[in-house]
Amino acid sequence: MKLICIGRNYVDHINELSNERPDEPVVFIKPDSAILPKEQDFYIPEFSEDVHYEVEVLVKIKKVGKHISKEFAHKYYDEVGLGIDFTARDLQSKLKSKGLPWEKAKGFDGAAVVGKWLPKDKFDDLDDLNFALSKNGGTVQNGNTSLMLWKIDEIIAYVSTYFMLKKGDIIFTGTPAGVGKVSPNDYLVGTLEGEQLFDINVK
């Protein structure tokens, strides 16, 4: 399985990082080794002094598909969830400034938190999901999927043009504004429509 991530999918987040608004989805891949094992703490890697949290709604692909049309994209997933795309921002900035790929800043071990999965039928409208991340008891990110530049089914259709989707693949759909640095002893909690789907201790 692979982790397919969408960057710059919320306007406020684009603005806070002073990035250009893209004309089409920004796609990057994390290896499956980036998934933080269940019940394990997140350890800040020694190669970075500025690791950021980015909370995101996740989608788990349930069957093989390629060149999927938007109208049929809903048939390729039954579960949604919440996770964190940890980013070594200092390393990413250094690599981007040299025009180099920045997988090292996004795909390092433990850089992908995958929380509990919920059946999509639990929700009335996947394009109107509230989600949030709190750090040490205070909310740091608040988002709603209605604010996505590209909605879930559009993302699946777009990505499947380039990559065959396989059962178990996970799509990270982008992060809203409010990203920030994690420090040792931080405690992060992610909620989707008020239900806690993960909690992480930072070391």
Q: Helicity, in percent?
A: 10-25%
Largest sheet: 7 strands, mixed
Overall 3D shape: globular
Strand percentage lies at 25-35%
Structure class: alpha+beta
Termini gap: 27 Å
Q: How many distinct helices?
A: 4
Order of helices and strands: EHEEEEEHHEEEEHEEEE
Residue windows where pLDDT falls under 50 for at least 5 positions:
none
- Rg, alpha carbons: 16 Å
Count of DSSP E strands?
Answer: 14
Mean pLDDT: 95
Question: Would you write up a description of this structure?
Answer:
The protein has four helices and 14 strands. The longest helix has 11 residues, at 152-162. The protein is of the alpha+beta class and 203 residues long. Strands 1, 2, 4, 5, 7, 8 and 11 form a seven-stranded mixed β-sheet that branches. It has helices at 11-16, 89-97, 103-106, 152-162, and strands spanning 3-7, 26-30, 51-53, 55-61, 77-85, 87-88, 112-114, 118-119, 130-135, 138-144, 170-172, 180-181, 187-192, 195-201.
Main attributes?
globular; 4 helices; four-stranded antiparallel β-sheet; alpha+beta; 203 residues; seven-stranded mixed β-sheet
